[in-house]
């Protein structure tokens, strides 16, 4: 059973996360200070540092705790989809992945800015990307130990392309897909790229 003091600490932590996210989205990562966040909540810097080690840490926790659905679960879903062997299921997964980017589009530029400007945030971002193939054990198993690194790289490249596609298409509006369904085109590119070698061979033979 949580005590009143613990409940208060949890409320303060939640308020700090909410305030930090809103300020980061409104002003950008670099322009926001710890003082800005604590002023918004009405607490001291000491209280902030009871919960977080600094701005990179609070942004990391925003990514882990305040997004509507964690990116890891999106890729755990992909692990199941690839196990079906269905291109159509993969196309549907791509639509769900793009919808995830849409739900979290406000925080994505903040994350990119922090990676570019904050050296101490880069290991956090690297770890976050590494978590994604780790959430796909069946996919990694099909590639085998000898090609595990290649399999992980392929997922990382997929993540990168989806991020850039979404940014240029939905955020910047600099990529015009016309009447084409981008999920179908992305499936043509990425579904074969994620198949382990024996599947490529059997597809060529067929």
What is the structure about, briefly put?
The chain is mostly helical and 206 residues long. The chain has twelve helices and no strands.
Keywords:
206 residues; HTH_TetR; DNA-binding; globular; Homeodomain-like_sf; 12 helices; mainly alpha; HTH-type_TetR-like_transc_reg; transcription regulation
Care to describe what's here?
This protein is mostly helical and 206 residues long. Helix content is 76%, strand content 0%. It contains 12 helices and no strands. The chain has helices at residues 4-27, 34-41, 45-51, 55-65, 71-84, 87-103, 108-117, 122-134, 137-143, 148-171, 182-193, 197-205. Helix 6 packs across helix 10 (148-171). Keywords: DNA-binding, Transcription, Transcription regulation. Residues 33-52 bind DNA.
Topology order in helix (H) and strand (E) letters: HHHHHHHHHHHH
- Whole-angstrom Rg: 20 Å
Secondary-structure class: mainly alpha
Low-pLDDT residue intervals, each spanning 5 or more residues: 201-206
**Biggest sheet descriptor:** none
Give the mean pLDDT. Answer: 91
Distance between the termini: 61 Å
Overall spatial form: globular
Helix count equals: 12
Total count of strands: 0
Strand content: under 5%
Assembly state here? single chain
DNA-binding region: 33-52
Organism: Saccharopolyspora ipomoeae
InterPro entries: Homeodomain-like_sf, HTH-type_TetR-like_transc_reg, HTH_TetR, Tet_transcr_reg_TetR-rel_C_sf
Keywords: DNA-binding, Transcription, Transcription regulation
Helix and strand layout, with pairings?
Elements: H1 4-27, H2 34-41, H3 45-51, H4 55-65, H5 71-84, H6 87-103, H7 108-117, H8 122-134, H9 137-143, H10 148-171, H11 182-193, H12 197-205
């Amino acid at each position: 059973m949580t005590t009143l003091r613990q409940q208060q600490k949890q409320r303060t932590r939640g308020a700090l996360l909410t305030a930090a996210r809103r300020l980061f989205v409104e002003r950008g990562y670099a322009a926001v200070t710890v003082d800005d966040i604590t002023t918004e909540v009405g607490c001291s810097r000491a209280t902030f540092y009871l919960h977080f080690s600094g701005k990179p840490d609070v942004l990391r926790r925003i990514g882990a705790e305040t997004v509507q659905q964690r990116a890891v679960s999106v890729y755990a879903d992909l692990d199941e989809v690839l196990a079906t062997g269905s291109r159509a299921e993969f196309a549907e997964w791509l639509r769900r992945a793009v919808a995830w980017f849409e739900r979290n589009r406000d925080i994505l530029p903040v994350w990119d800015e922090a990676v570019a400007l904050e050296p101490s945030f880069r290991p956090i971002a690297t770890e976050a990307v590494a978590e994604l193939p780790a959430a796909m054990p069946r996919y990694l198993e099909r590639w085998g130990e000898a090609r595990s690194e290649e399999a992980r790289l392929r997922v990382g490249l997929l993540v990168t392309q989806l991020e850039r596609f979404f940014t240029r298409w939905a955020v910047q509006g600099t990529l015009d897909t016309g009447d084409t369904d981008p999920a179908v085109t992305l499936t043509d590119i990425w579904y074969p790229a994620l198949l382990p070698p024996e599947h490529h061979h059997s597809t060529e033979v067929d």
